[in-house]
Design goal:
Layout (H helix, E strand, L loop, with lengths): L5 E7 L2 E6 L2 E6 L4 E6 L2 E8 L4 E6 L14 H24 L2
Antiparallel strand pairs: 1-2, 2-3, 3-4, 4-5, 5-6
Length: about 100
């Protein structure tokens, strides 16, 4: 059994900051279709909203290339701190506008 964590934070309509145990990522697109970037590289995702069913495809420059997946808790904590700082700045900017 493995421990998983995923949190998705909406930055703007169609733009999300994705937090996980192994890092952060950014995805863009309407509900059900996404283009994203995370520590493994660029990916596309298509799914049926509300069902949990989706397909994910990592975009690779060559067919034999596999992304390296290495991480530790320090990277996760740094990612969370960066995400919190980004969200805090966005909230302050949004509240300062009339």
């Amino acid at each position: 059994m493995s421990l998983r964590f995923r949190r998705r934070i909406r930055i703007l309509p169609g733009v999300h900051l994705n937090l996980g145990l192994h890092g952060i990522g950014l995805s863009v697109g309407p509900r059900g279709l996404h283009l994203g970037m995370n520590r493994r590289g660029m990916y596309t995702s298509a799914g049926i909203p509300g069902t949990g069913l989706y397909a994910l495809h990592h975009v690779r420059s060559s067919p034999g290339e596999h992304p390296s997946v290495e991480g530790n808790a320090a990277g996760f904590l740094l990612g969370v701190l960066v995400a919190v700082a980004v969200v805090a700045v966005l909230v302050v900017v949004a509240m300062s506008q009339p």
